Structure formats: structure tokens, C-alpha cells
């Protein structure tokens, strides 16, 4: 399928590895000119080289912390008028809510709720003026099925979801859509960290925890980042203009609900 977005400009946050990188690769393959960012210049430079080998669109990069105002300004200076925005940021650490003070909550809310809102605020009106825009937020399946030891993520990402639910209905008439992808367990560094923390909490070997986790997934495997990247690319396509305000779970069948 030709997704009809060749030549569009995309800004993809936290995209040097993991799910953000997968989104960048899929969009670039479709001929989208992408701007990616990450805090580590070395990792970012390698990712740029790797993605350029894919072919398709051009690849620009900004070494910055997108969760800061300075980082957001630096990113938007390089890509001031994106047609596509993919909001993504590393999740906050797992743990017990009794151990989280104001600083922990502030960091989680800033990274996983406020930063996406500010990026949307900076780019939305331009999309409306140009009569095309696709905003995709990478959140978590925990938005629909909270995970007890990921309380910081549950709270912050649910806040973003509530904000987007109201905004997405206002922009659809301008051909600007806003959707969220809710990933379950994908084979990323974040998953490795979560499994390690769970193993320590349960006093088990990481290998045992990993094996047990896979057994809870109907697909009997962890997700491949490329699978999420291709879903993101479709939601950014010309054909996806009638999809907005949705929270699309991609978790190998783990979410047990009918709706």
C-alpha cells in the first residue's frame, strides 16, 4: 500500500532506539523526511547512519532532552513545521508508590504527559492551516489495564490520554488526527529493565521471569518494534484520516477486555 505521505515532514521524539526508532524507520521507508532526537549524541549519530541505509526520506537529528523546554526549542528549530509528530519518551521507573515523592511524580508527569502536550501545542495550529496533520502518541497498554508496579506510568500516561480525548475531536474537521498507540511487552531496553526490576522484587532469576511473562501473552512472544513502527506509519498515512481519538492496543492479545 502506498501510504501517500512521501515528502511529508515528521518529528519523532526519543527515537535513537526502541519503539521511537522503529517509528522513524517505518516512516523514512515510506519517503517521509524525518527529524529524530535523543540525549546521547553518539547513539543518535549511529541511528542516523543506520536509518539512512534504509533509503526513502531524508534524516535529520537533534541531540537534546525533549523533556526540557530548551530541548523542545532545539528540536522545533530544525523541524518547525512538521506534518507528522510522534510523541515518545522513556517510561518512569517501576516501584512502590510509597517510595515516590514529589520529584518522582513531577519527572513522570513532565516526560509522559506535559512534554507531549507542549509538542502538540507548538505544532498543531500549523497542521490545521496546512489541512494535514498526524499526531501519534506512544503511551502504554497500562492506560487500559494498569500495572501495579508501574504506577508513575499509569498516572502520567492516563493524564495525556484524557487530554487527547477532548482535543482530537476538535481537529478532525481540519484533517488533523490525534491517536495513541498502547504497546504491551516489546523487546526493548525498557522491557529488559522492567523484567530485571520484577525479578529483584520477586527474588527470581531474570530468565525465569522472562519465560513466565511470555506464557501470559496469547501470542507467546514479545512484540517486534518494527510491528509497532508499521502501525504508526499507517496511522500517519493519507488513508487514516477517519481515525482519531483512538487508543490502539498492540500487545499480542494480553488485554482481556471486549472493548
Tell me what the structure shows.
The chain has 259 residues and is α/β, with parallel strands linked by helices. 47% of the residues lie in helices and 14% in strands. The chain has helices at 18-29, 41-54, 69-78, 102-130, 151-171, 189-202, 206-215, 225-235, and strands at residues 9-12, 33-38, 59-63, 84-87, 133-138, 176-183, 247-250. It has a seven-stranded parallel sheet with strand order 3-2-1-4-5-6-7, with helices on both faces. The longest helix is centred in the middle third of the chain and has 29 residues, at 102-130. The chain is globular. The model has no long low-confidence stretch (mean pLDDT 95).
Percentage of residues assigned to helices: 40-55%
Q: Could you tell me the strand content as a percent range?
A: 5-15%
What distance separates the N and C termini?
A: 28 Å
Shape annotation: globular
Q: What string gives the helices and strands in order?
A: EHEHEHEHEHEHHHE
- Total strand count, please? 7
Judged by helices, strands and strand pairing, the structural class is alpha/beta
Strand arrangement within the widest β-sheet reads 3-2-1-4-5-6-7
For the largest beta-sheet, the strand count, sense and barrel status come to: 7 strands, parallel
Give the helix tally: 8
Give me the Rg, rounded: 18 Å
Arithmetic mean pLDDT: 95
Quaternary arrangement of the chains shown?
Answer: single chain
Query: Which consecutive residue ranges, at least 5 long each, have pLDDT under 50?
Result: none
Amino acid at each position: 500500500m502506498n501510504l501517500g505521505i512521501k515528502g511529508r515532514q515528521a518529528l519523532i521524539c526519543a527515537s535513537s532506539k526502541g519503539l521511537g526508532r522503529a517509528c522513524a524507520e517505518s516512516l523514512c521507508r515510506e519517503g517521509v523526511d524525518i527529524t529524530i532526537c535523543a540525549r546521547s549524541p553518539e547513539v543518535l549519530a549511529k541511528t542516523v547512519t543506520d536509518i539512512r541505509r534504509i533509503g526513502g526520506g531524508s534524516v535529520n537529528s537533534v541531540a537534546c532532552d525533549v523533556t526540557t523546554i530548551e530541548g523542545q526549542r532545539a528540536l522545533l528549530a530544525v523541524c518547525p513545521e512538521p506534518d507528522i509528530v510522534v510523541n515518545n519518551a522513556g517510561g518512569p521507573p517501576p516501584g512502590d508508590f510509597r517510595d515516590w515523592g514529589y520529584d518522582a511524580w513531577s519527572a513522570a508527569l513532565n516526560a509522559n504527559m506535559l512534554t507531549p502536550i507542549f509538542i502538540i501545542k507548538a505544532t498543531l495550529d500549523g497542521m490545521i492551516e496546512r489541512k494535514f496533520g498526524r499526531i501519534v502518541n506512544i503511551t502504554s497498554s497500562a492506560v487500559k489495564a494498569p500495572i501495579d508496579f508501574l504506577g508513575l506510568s499509569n498516572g502520567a500516561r492516563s493524564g495525556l490520554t484524557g487530554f487527547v480525548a477532548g482535543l482530537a475531536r476538535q481537529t478532525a474537521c481540519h484533517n488533523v488526527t490525534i491517536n495513541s498507540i498502547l504497546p504491551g511487552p516489546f523487546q526493548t531496553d525498557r522491557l529488559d529493565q522492567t523484567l530485571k526490576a520484577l525479578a529483584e522484587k520477586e527474588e527470581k532469576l531474570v530468565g525465569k521471569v522472562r519465560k513466565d511473562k511470555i506464557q501470559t501473552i496469547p501470542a507467546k512472544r514479545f512484540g517486534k518494534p518494527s510491528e509497532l513502527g508499521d502501525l504508526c506509519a499507517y496511522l500517519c498515512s493519507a488513508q487514516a484520516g477517519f481515525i482519531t481519538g483512538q487508543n490502539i492496543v498492540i500487545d499480542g492479545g494480553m488485554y482481556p477486555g471486549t472493548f
